[in-house]
Design goal:
The protein has helices at residues 7-37, 44-51, 55-61, 65-89, 95-112, 114-123, 129-155, 164-180, 182-185, 191-206. By secondary structure, it is mainly α. The termini are far apart. Helix 6 (114-123) crosses helix 8 (164-180). The radius of gyration is 20 Å and the shape is globular.
Length: 217
Amino acid sequence: MTTETSPRARGEKAREERVRRRRREILQAAARLMEESGYHAVSMQAVAEQAEISVGLIYTYFGNKEDLLRAVIVDILEDFQERVPAAIEGAGTDPVDRLFRGFQEFCRVIDAKLDATVLAYRESQTLDVEGRRQLMELEIRTAAPIKQAVVDGIAQGVFRDVDPDLVTHNIALIAHGWALKHWNLAGRFSVEDYVEREFELLLAAITAEKGPGERRS
């Protein structure tokens, strides 16, 4: 027997979707303006105009401009937290493929949010102590699946006995480099080309002498 969704449930779902869409539009507008002009030069009114909503509506989502900045940065980290582990788990059991898929998804998140990524580098120190602490904790959690893929590869003899934390650190820097140097890189590579080329260099540095075997399909 098919159970139909009640009108009330459908209405609630539609309302939640409107809230998510509006919040996303605000974050995109804020990231774009703050990246272009700097955090301190951008007003909430300017963000409202960019998002084509009233400034009062922004304050229903964010208490002040610092809350908005933190939300822009947290939004990227939450995407990492959701999408990177899923990509790794969907890659199967081969450690090279798992590391590649995690790195690839990391770069794809950044490619989708270039302005926000650059803004995070420029303005994260503007946040208060609690805001910076939250970002550091999220960064550690989002990096954990990448680190685990490296650890597993070492345990299976596919990767050399490298420092997993340092490899994870380098992977994050390479991924962020797509945003920070996008003005130069985008004229030569697509994001997928960039991922392939950079991963080849990374793999050459960490692969055990016996070789990684078959790579991804």
